[in-house]
């Protein structure tokens, strides 16, 4: 398969679908709607929704059935970026090649835009015309990954670790697996549930997602040091500026690359029991994650 064409095609599908799940612009308070739409259509790789659709295909499902949870996941991911960029968090001014939401609008509107996207994601899931049992499982998976024992916890731990020199590899792994990894894992697992995967298949996809998420964040650590800001579409060098301990500060660039490669190899190994053709996109995405420049 040609991964570049695959990612381009799936990204286009999500770009077109996700805005259709926004409600009509309100008569009053349209600034909120503008901020939400601005953030949602700004671009990005759409990796998480693509993983959701690929996870559905991996277990023999139709990827089109996973478009609703894929869009909900992208809304949650976008909300997390809006909030991460706020001055009280990472204080970033550039995201996906555009001014961050709080810069484009204001801090209060950015907070509300994030809140709106998080809640809209679950509205979309609840309105999904799909098998009720699987729908509930998907919603629970995504909620758990996004909440106080998942992504939100990871963000708090990341903030707690800023400026500390005593952060261990164990603590850093915890931060990465929660702040970034949980939603990546939930994406592929939600796809597997949607496609009617067996419990064994779901757990294999979960292991894949866990290690893919780790590889993704380690690569982000590397790109923050050696990446091209124009290609990344966001500020580089921010980890060093905030005195964050990363895999690069612990192991150096080459050591971090080795850790990322090991994580990807473990992720791919988790898919051994699947039909090779059905999981080819997941395998290729895993390799892309550590080879990417953005």
- Structural class by secondary-structure content: mainly alpha
Rg (C-alpha, Å): 18 Å
First and last CA, distance: 21 Å
CATH topology description: Farnesyl Diphosphate Synthase
- The CATH C-level name is Mainly Alpha
**Major sheet: order of its strands?**
1-2
Low-confidence stretches: none
The domain tally reads 1
Secondary-structure element pattern, one letter each: HHHHEEHHHHHHHHHH
Estimated share of beta-strand residues: under 5%
Shape: globular
Name the helicity range: over 70%
Helix segment tally: 14
Instruction: Give the number of DSSP strands.
Output: 2
Question: Any chance you could write out the topology, listing elements then pairs?
Answer:
Blueprint: H1 3-18, H2 30-40, H3 47-58, H4 67-84, E1 94-95, E2 98-99, H5 101-104, H6 107-126, H7 132-146, H8 151-161, H9 169-194, H10 199-226, H11 229-232, H12 238-241, H13 247-269, H14 276-291
Antiparallel strand pairs: 1-2
Helix pairs in contact: 2-6, 3-4, 3-9, 3-14, 4-6, 4-9, 7-9, 8-9, 9-10, 10-13, 10-14, 13-14
Structure, described:
This protein is mainly alpha-helical. The chain has one domain (3-291): Farnesyl Diphosphate Synthase. 71% of the residues lie in helices and 1% in strands. The protein has 14 helices and 2 strands. It has helices at 3-18, 30-40, 47-58, 67-84, 101-104, 107-126, 132-146, 151-161, 169-194, 199-226, 229-232, 238-241, 247-269, 276-291; strands spanning 94-95, 98-99. The chain has a two-stranded antiparallel sheet. Helix 7 (132-146) runs antiparallel to helix 9, helix 9 (169-194) crosses helix 10 and helix 13 (247-269) runs antiparallel to helix 14 (276-291). It is globular and about 45 Å long. The protein starts with a helix and ends with a helix.
């Amino acid at each position: 398969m040609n991964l570049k064409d695959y990612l381009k095609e799936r990204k286009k599908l999500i770009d077109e679908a996700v805005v259709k799940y926004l409600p009509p612009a309100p008569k009053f308070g349209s600034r909120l709607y503008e901020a939400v739409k601005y953030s949602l259509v700004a671009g990005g790789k759409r990796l998480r929704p693509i993983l959701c659709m690929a996870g559905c295909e991996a277990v023999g499902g139709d990827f089109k059935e996973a478009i609703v949870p894929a869009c909900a996941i992208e809304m949650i991911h976008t909300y997390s970026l809006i909030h991460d960029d706020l001055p009280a968090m990472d204080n970033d001014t550039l995201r996906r090649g555009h001014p961050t939401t709080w810069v484009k609008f204001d801090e209060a509107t950015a907070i509300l835009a994030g809140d709106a996207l998080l809640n809209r994601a679950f509205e979309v899931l609840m309105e999904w015309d799909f098998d009720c049992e699987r729908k509930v499982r998907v919603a629970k998976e995504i909620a758990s990954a996004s909440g106080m024992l998942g992504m939100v916890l990871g963000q708090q731990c990341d903030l707690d670790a800023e400026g500390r020199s005593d952060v261990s590899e164990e603590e850093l792994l915890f931060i990465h697996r929660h702040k970034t990894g949980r939603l990546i894992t939930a994406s592929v697992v939600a796809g597997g549930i949607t496609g009617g995967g067996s419990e064994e298949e779901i757990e294999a996809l979960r292991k894949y997602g866990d290690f893919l998420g780790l590889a993704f964040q380690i690569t982000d650590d590397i790109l923050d040091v050696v990446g091209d800001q124009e290609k990344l579409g966001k500020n580089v060098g921010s980890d060093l500026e905030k005195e964050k301990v990363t895999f690069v500060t612990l192991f150096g660039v080459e050591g971090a690359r080795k850790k990322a490669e090991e994580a990807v190899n473990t992720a791919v190994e988790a898919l051994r029991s699947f039909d090779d053709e059905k999981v080819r996109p997941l395998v290729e995405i895993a390799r892309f994650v550590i080879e990417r420049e953005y």
